[in-house]
């Protein structure tokens, strides 16, 4: 949530740019790093191959020449050119020196290296003597010298072969370690890709969430308003375009609620008296009657009719008649209980709904209202008295029309008795 609030301080365009950067920049960096690592590995492999060739080739060549010299009995043909034993010896010495220089890198098995160099040092004197022998010999050797030379050759071949084998182990061990190192580098590279892309995707997801969350809130709020709910608002977070849109949406929702309430009031309220109008009070009567029958609770209503209202209009004018209507409504509302409803049925006739109220209790309330209005009307000629007729469900009827007819009949009976008196 805190990260989302921080991100909402950025504009939508900035966050989109950050999403693109988070997805492309790590890939570009990792691609460059991968190219560097792979190029280094290729160069290291090439150097390893060249080192193997330059290190083992002189020993192998020397061993070959010694084998051939043994077979040919030290250049039986005087006209044949002698191999360059001296150059091969120097090349082998340089190879061992070069390997020794790299020994401090801890990538050489020193024991095997020592064995290889020891074998070469044993073979080297014999090879040196063979070099001198080749230089001085221009024909066949005496029989006793030939036997001695043959022994020298065999020892030299054995020592050179031993040195070559040990040196092969050295090169193989060095190559194995280099291959393991390259393998680790590749694994680190793969894990670098995985972790970097995971982090980039997670951050990009956070940026996308900061964009999509307010949009989903706006969509949800719009659907709730479309369903008719009131009081719907979206939280305003951050300083971006979506926050401005949320502010405008809340203002629009508030204006819509005010307009809707005005329309509802105009549709359900009598504009003169403020009581429910005919349509609203009849709809409320149907709803309360249905609830009464379903829950088996009593419901009562009484119809009020103003006495001599036409005479007040004729004598004091229609303004006084309007004032008399408003006064009666205010007086009756003050005597009704919380939860009771009053509506103007038409002209100077009103209906009061009393949910969860029996007929006897409703008659008591009606008489109290009639008496309170009569007491004031007796002192003020411009205020009328009222007559009331009570009906209750379910004993007097189970539908709105029947109940109103029963209440009207009771009302006119009350008026007839009042005129008779």
From TrEMBL:
Keywords: Membrane, Transmembrane, Transmembrane helix
Top-rank EC class of the record's enzyme: transferase
EC number: 2.7.7.65
Pfam families xrefs: GGDEF (PF00990), HAMP (PF00672)
Residue ranges crossing the lipid bilayer per the database entry: 16-38, 186-212
A GO term from the CC aspect: plasma membrane
GO biological process: cell adhesion involved in single-species biofilm formation; negative regulation of bacterial-type flagellum-dependent cell motility; signal transduction
Residue span(s) of domain HAMP: 209-261
Catalytic activity: 2 GTP = 3',3'-c-di-GMP + 2 diphosphate
Gene3D superfamilies noted in UniProt: 3.30.70.270, 6.10.340.10
A Gene Ontology molecular function term of the record: diguanylate cyclase activity
Named cofactor requirement(s): Mg(2+)
SUPFAM superfamilies from the UniProt entry: HAMP domain-like (SSF158472), Nucleotide cyclase (SSF55073)
InterPro entries: Diguanylate_Cyclase, GGDEF_dom, HAMP_dom, Nucleotide_cyclase, Rev_trsase/Diguanyl_cyclase
SMART domains, per the entry: GGDEF, HAMP
Domain GGDEF: 297-421
Statement: the UniProt record of this protein carries the keyword Membrane: yes
NCBIfam families the record matches: GGDEF
The name this protein goes by in its record: diguanylate cyclase
């Amino acid at each position: 949530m805190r990260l989302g609030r921080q991100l909402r301080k950025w504009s939508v365009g900035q966050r989109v740019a950050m999403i693109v950067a988070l997805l492309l920049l790590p890939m570009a960096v990792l691609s460059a790093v991968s190219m560097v690592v792979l190029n280094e590995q290729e160069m290291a492999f090439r150097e390893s191959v060249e080192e193997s060739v330059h290190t083992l080739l002189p020993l192998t060549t020397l061993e070959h020449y010694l084998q051939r010299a043994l077979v040919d009995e030290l250049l039986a043909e005087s006209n044949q050119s002698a191999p360059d034993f001296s150059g091969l010896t120097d090349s082998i010495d340089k190879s061992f020196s070069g390997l020794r220089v790299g020994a401090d890198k801890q990538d050489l098995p020193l024991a095997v290296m020592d064995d290889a160099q020891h074998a070469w040092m044993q073979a080297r004197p014999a090879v040196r003597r063979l070099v001198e022998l080749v230089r001085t010999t221009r024909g066949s050797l005496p029989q006793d010298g030939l036997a001695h030379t043959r022994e020298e050759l065999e020892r030299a071949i054995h020592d050179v072969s031993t040195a070559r084998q040990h040196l092969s182990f050295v090169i193989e061990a060095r190559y194995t370690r280099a291959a393991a190192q390259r393998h680790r580098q590749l694994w680190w590279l793969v894990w670098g890709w995985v972790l970097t892309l995971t982090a980039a995707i997670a951050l990009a997801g956070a940026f996308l969430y900061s964009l999509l969350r307010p949009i989903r809130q706006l969509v949800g709020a719009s659907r709730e308003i479309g369903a008719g709910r009131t009081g719907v608002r979206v939280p305003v977070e951050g300083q971006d375009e979506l926050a401005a849109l949320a502010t405008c949406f809340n203002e629009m929702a508030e204006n819509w609620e005010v307009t809707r309430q005005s329309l509802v009031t105009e549709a359900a309220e009598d504009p003169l008296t403020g009581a429910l109008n005919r349509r609203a009070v009849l709809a409320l009567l149907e709803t309360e009657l249905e609830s009464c029958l379903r829950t088996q609770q009593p419901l009562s209503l009484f119809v009020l009719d103003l006495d001599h209202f036409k005479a007040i209009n004729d004598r004091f004018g229609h303004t006084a008649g309007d004032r008399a209507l408003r006064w009666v409504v205010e007086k009756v509302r003050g005597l009704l209980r919380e939860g009771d409803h009053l509506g103007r049925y038409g002209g100077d006739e009103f209906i009061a709904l009393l949910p969860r109220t029996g007929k006897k209790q409703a008659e008591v309330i009606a008489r109290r209202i009639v008496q309170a209005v009569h007491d004031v009307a007796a002192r003020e000629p411009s205020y009328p008295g009222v007559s009331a007729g009570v009906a209750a469900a379910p004993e007097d009827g189970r539908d709105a029309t029947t109940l109103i007819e029963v209440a009207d009949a009771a009302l006119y009976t009350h008026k007839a008795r009042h005129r008779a008196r």
